[in-house]
Design a protein that fits this description.
The chain has 13 helices and ten strands. By secondary structure, the protein is an alpha/beta fold. The structure holds zinc ion. Residues 95, 190, 234-235, 277 line the site of zinc ion (ZN).
């Protein structure tokens, strides 16, 4: 058993309480490799922003859970070397799908876990979440739960409605499970294709897709039921069009990729939403930067020469999110 506290990591409790009060949100960035991790830590250190390092199932399969956990330990030391005296870094399991997995991550040094029982019937979600919370709290590890199914790519907009988190369920769920934060579904979705073109309108000037707005009315109702309780938004990449356009113009193929406008995330950050998950945008930044090198210097074959610029581009992206969208800069001095 390794305690995250020995690794210099923190859980999300104090961080979220401060964020809800302060009207900003903590960035939760996924990492799968060294360059992403370096970029996240550098951006957080330079802006003095609390940060959540997330490890998904895909990341565990790709890079190995043990290796990623040691990299996160290294991240704390690296942050200090960069001049961040008291780094506020959380190591979080993204979309944990079983009690056993959450337990193994907690024993390994994760400071926060998500148990995602959102696809289960309500009572089973409650039971599973409760079990994870009971174990996690013994070690002062915080738990994120999910209620409502994140709208993926649905055929009809009306069908999406029924996937939204039901505000009438949240008090019962939070009380019964004891979870520390709640991921809700109000229209965000995973991936770079968050909406089908037919769900969007088109900007008459640019011809670009304009996605449907988030269900702020649902968020408001949830906030009313759970005043001050930390709310989490998954699938909150904005899919920057300049990356998509660059990729498409240089051999890529990402037709009609569309995300959540930053304006809406800025608005959400000021509410009880205190954790915003961003993954696809970093992938796009990385891909655009790598394509740029390959396009401009076809003879390049040293991975450092294309992953280095990719890392620089990600630092830029993360800092932009922290400063201009989430407003978390300067909150971890
Ligand atoms: Zn997610």
């Amino acid at each position: 058993m390794v305690s995250y506290k020995e690794l210099g990591l923190v859980n999300t409790r104090a961080m979220f309480a401060k964020a809800v009060k302060g009207g900003y949100a903590i960035p939760a960035f996924n990492f799968n490799n060294m360059e992403q991790l370096q970029a996240i830590v550098q951006a957080a250190a330079e802006t003095k922003s609390p940060v959540i390092l997330q490890i998904s199932k895909g990341a565990r399969n790709y890079a190995n859970q043990t290796l990623l956990r040691y990299m996160a330990e290294g991240a704390v030391q690296y942050a200090k070397e960069l001049g961040w005296r008291r780094p506020q870094i959380v190591l979080h399991l993204d979309h944990g799908d079983s009690y056993e997995l959450c337990k193994s991550c907690i024993q390994m040094g994760f400071s926060s876990v998500m148990i995602d029982g959102s696809s289960l019937p309500y009572d089973e979600n409650v039971a599973l979440t409760k079990k994870v919370v009971r174990y996690a709290h013994r070690y002062d590890v915080t738990v994120e739960a999910e209620l409502g199914v994140l709208a993926g790519v649905e055929d009809e907009v009306s069908a999406e409605e029924s996937h939204y988190t039901k505000p009438e369920e949240v008090i019962d769920f939070v009380t019964k499970t004891g979870c520390d934060s709640l991921a809700i579904s109000i229209g965000t979705s995973h991936g770079a294709y968050k909406f089908k073109p037919e769900q969007c309108t088109r900007d008459p000037k640019t011809g670009k897709l304009v996605p449907p707005p988030l269900a702020f009315d649902v968020l408001k109702q949830i906030e009313k039921k759970l005043p001050g309780f930390p709310i989490v938004l998954h699938g909150s990449s904005s899919v920057p069009q300049e990356y998509v356009d660059y990729i498409n113009a240089h051999g890529g193929k990402l037709p009609d990729a569309v995300g959540i406008p930053e304006e809406q995330l800025r608005k959400a950050s000021k509410s009880a939403v205190c954790k915003i998950n961003i993954d696809s945008d970093s992938r796009l930044a990385m891909t655009a930067a790598v394509r740029k090198v390959f396009f401009e210097k076809p003879g390049e074959f040293d991975p450092r020469k294309y992953l280095g610029p990719a890392r620089d581009e990600m630092v830029k992206l993360y800092k932009h999110k922290i400063i201009n969208v989430l407003g978390s800069d300067g909150h971890a001095k």
